[in-house]
Amino acid sequence: MSTRQKTSESQSPRYSRREFLIRSGVVGVGAVSLPAILSACGGGGGSSQATNTLYFENWPGYMDSETVALFKKETGIDFTYTEKFNDNNEYFAKVQPLLAKGKTIKPDLVAPTYWMAARWIQLGWAQKIEMEAIPNAKNLRKDLKSPSWDKNNEYQLPYQTGIAGIAYNASITGRELKSVEDLFDPAFKGQIGMLTEMRDTVGLIAMANGIKLSEISSFDQVASAFDKLEAAKKDGQIRSFTGNDYMDDLSAGNFAACVAWSGDVLQLQAENPDIKFVIPEEGGTSWYDTMLLVEGSQHGEQAAKWMDYIYDPVNAARITATVQYISPVDGVRDELVKLGGETAKLAESPLLFPSDEEIARLQSWGALSETEEAKFDERFATIIGA
Fold first, then answer.
1. Three-state DSSP class for 366?
2. How far apart are CA 244 and CA 326, in angstroms?
């Protein structure tokens, strides 16, 4: 992602959120030195002491500073909050040399995207959370309860959720866009942007081909989607593949339309009402980042208190007002209204509170085996030129 920042760090969008080079595995474990790994993870991996402390490593620009300060004050927990989880595979590469040997890392909590969380759980890198100590877990949205890879939410609770769909600049397109096929309209040749996040870009195309994402287990099932993407790249239909810096291109008019994430577009609309976001007729992809308690952490009690704290709708609403992604917590809408002013207007945003009909049109990928994951990443990297 780009280095573009807002004036307030706590309000900054998550640039570096889904950068591809490391996401795709082009930069892997071998490209990260052991000293860099130890520095990023906070040490040599010895078991953290059972003190009244908690360390949460999250994505950049994904929290408001007030919530962090209030949690410290109200609980008395020595809470360390950092934003060094810049990319799923990059972070995986950093921690693998330690966790694979049965050692632990300094962060107690991390927030991988759901598909990577499933991988951590499968590898034994996460431990069960103390659900009985999280009464506010009852506020978890029903559509996020008990995914196939974590029945009964024993290992994780979602942090924030989002939608990938189509963003477009109506002043350039001159018409409303509704379908994934609009991205391949020759009228917009050289003005289309695609994300460097494979699951969102390829996922939308696969859905347009009638493929159900949760049923994908092999590369062959979606080879046609990759072929279509590659043909569009060769034909010059696609201007570029980007991370969150698509926001710059969309605002500047370089993109007529692009694959985009809902929360980002909500931020852009405040400055340019011509920028629109739509869940395509064929459906959009749904993703979420979730909180995992790292294996070896001695701070399960403190982690449970943190999860309980941010699953209180009052605190969840404060976070939503800052990050403007879809909260996993029921009751946030009412709390935004209570906050009044411009914040209350967020309660009416269809990007923060999609209807039941829109939610029904969202799909998520299931877990892929290591072998198949490598096939997907290799083909995608070839297409985008990584």
1. coil
2. 17
Q: How far apart are CA 308 and CA 370, in angstroms?
A: 34
Any idea what DSSP says for residue 282? Answer: T
pLDDT tens digits for 18-57?
333 223 333 333 333 333 333 445 444 444 567 999 999 9
- The domains located in the chain, with CATH, are 9-161+286-352 (3.40.190.10), 162-285 (3.40.190.10)
Query: What does the radius of gyration of the chain's CA atoms come to, in whole angstroms?
Result: 20
Task: Compute the CA torsion angle 179, 185, 190, 196 (nearest 10 deg).
Answer: 30
> Could you please report the per-residue DSSP string of 246-270?
HHHHHHHTS-SEEEEEHHHHHHHHT
For the stretch 124-166, pLDDT in tens is 999 999 999 999 999 999 989 998 889 889 999 999 999 999 9
Tokens of 73: 């004050």
pTM: 0.77
Question: Whole-angstrom distance between the N-terminal and C-terminal Cα of the chain?
Answer: 14
Judge contact between 123 and 207, C-beta under 8 A.
no
Cα separation of 54 and 77, whole Å? 7
Retrieve residue 373's tokens: 């994951």
The neighbouring-strand residues paired with 294 are: 126
